[in-house]
Amino acid sequence: MPIIKAYERRFPTCPQMPIVLDCEIIEDNVFDNGARRDTKRRCKIAVEAPYLIKKIIGVDVVFFIQQNFLDMKTRTLNIEATNESFATRVEIFEKCRYYAHPENPDWTCFDQTATLDIKNFFGIEHSMEKMGMKQYTQTTLKGKEIIEFFVNELKQEGITHVDRWVDDATVTSTTAGTATNTTPPEKPPLCRDNSILDADYIAKYLGQLTPLQESKLVQLRKRFEHGTSEHPEPDYQTLLRFLRARDFSIDKATGMLQESLQWRKEQRIDSILGEYKTPVVVEKYFPGGWHHHDKDGRPLYILRLGTMDVKGLLKSVGEDELLKLTLHICEEGLRLMKDATKLFGKPVWNWCLLVDLDGLSMRHLWRPGVKALLRIIETVEKNYPETMGRVLIVRAPRVFPVLWTIVSTFIDENTRSKFLFFGGPDCMHAEDGIEQYIDTDKIPSFLGGSCNPSIPTVVETIPAKLYTRCFLGACHCTLIHEGGLVPKHLYKSESIEETNGAIQAHDHHGLYKAVDLKPGQLFELLIRNTDPKSVLTWDFEVLKNDTLFAVFHTEKEIEQSGNDDFSSVFDGPDFKEGTNYKKIEQSVKCRPKEGVQGSHEMASTGTYVLQWMCPPSCDGPAQLMYFHEILSSANYKGSMTSLQSGFSSNSLQSR
């Protein structure tokens, strides 16, 4: 019991408790062949009180009697302390206990109680009570620190283990008897694979935990220790994840885990790895897959979100199937984390996600898609807590701050803190780039690395073993599709069915609006702003012929009526550019099948004008679909000033 050896070193004095001036042993008795030892000490304590109080009580030191009762059989140490000085005026009684944890004998538990009864103390009872409580609080906080100090001191001296007490008479008797009596009882099994919950197991599979965290982990396990073949008890890794998600509150973690276990039973999650069949559309067009591991040993999942046809996948397989795909990925992640723990010989209890946003636009926030995304986020955070170790967001376009502002509100605060953003095209070699987190030979070629994780053609169903081989690094290519548009003939329906039977046909026409422009014709969208520091965002797709786009601002009142389609609201005699209106986004020429996304912080009130024009030189009309949104200053937490428009090549034409 190294804790006892460390405890004994604090006498007669220790530097962490300078108020203890001396401790004298006045009685020391050993009983039961060394099994029990009772020690009585008289301790001299400096009075920490204001000078006036010291003058009133007339002393600078007080004496306490401390009695230790050590029982080697039960592996307990009980400590009782009472005051000798002023015993007729004040009664102080403190009791501490060190004992072996009932579930894991390698753990030591500690509890402490104290009472203070001030009967009559020179008329300053209230002041003495406050000082007594303050002193007790300080002593309690230092107790753990002192024990840890002496435990580390023992380690530095090479003492990391102390043999447990054995009764010599019992050993002699056992030797003369059968050999089976010499075998110590087995430690409690950890889980179904008969792992043992001991210090080595904690270090290898769970990681560094404080004694309090370890104790709460075992207490939570007791609440789930009676599993069945249909509903097996969760292992310690699972219990620890749910505890971390609820700040080690046993009651909160219990409620969260009970709900998750019931959900797993209802949804047959324990069978998903063996039963799930990947839809052909997902195999061909879902741009995500497992790819080796990061530098910390976490399994690495790559998602090329910018090239993902959210609408096409949703219309082809449906929201439930995309959720099932996500759950299958999460279950694969749990399995790969266990594989990584065995491979690297250290705890790996979360995975790394790399999200490539090249090609991202506002169309990724198509409302049925957002609805599906929020359902997925909610389900994953409820049932797979603390599985996300790091999220690398690479090649984030200028429109991303807007998307992040909208989406991040639905992501747990602890998870949000794990996001790292890389906005430029060269996320590999930039200062503190992704080379800090992923080995260079594992970085995908589309990010500038030498590893090629993509496949340009249709693949057959991938056996589970192949994912594992790729993760362990035994092959040079992992199976991640490049995405692309899902052909319309694969759609199950042109509409997305909502709950309760309601149907919204061609939902993107509710989000995007279509405009046809003849050569020389203008279309202007007027936005009156009364909320300084709000953010105006836009996203449009040119379907046919070239289009010119610009953004203007004026604080002068605009009357739009009376203007024809070939003149601007600024063509009147009351407007002069540079005087009472200005161009805040320079004109850009947009070609067919180009998407343009942009944002502008509306620093002042007034009217903002989004202007599209079909050049007079065009040989035919231009067609475009546009969307705009305003983020209020109260809801937008980013920092953007006059972001220029960004381009993407995906088209709405086939959607």
UniProtKB/TrEMBL annotation:
Alphabetized SUPFAM superfamilies for the sequence: CRAL/TRIO domain, CRAL/TRIO N-terminal domain, Supernatant protein factor (SPF), C-terminal domain
Lineage top rank: taxon: Eukaryota
Cellular location(s): Mitochondrion
A GO cellular component entry from the record: mitochondrion
Xref: InterPro entries: CRAL-TRIO_dom (IPR001251), CRAL-TRIO_dom_sf (IPR036865), CRAL/TRIO_N_dom (IPR011074), CRAL/TRIO_N_dom_sf (IPR036273), GOLD_dom_sf (IPR036598), PRELI/MSF1_dom (IPR006797), SEC14/CRAL-TRIO_domain (IPR051064)
CRAL-TRIO domain: residues covered: 278-455
Organism: Anopheles merus
Domain named PRELI/MSF1: residues: 1-159
Pfam family of the protein (one): CRAL_TRIO
Protein name: Protein real-time
Keywords: Mitochondrion
PANTHER family, sorted: PROTEIN REAL-TIME, SEC14 RELATED PROTEIN
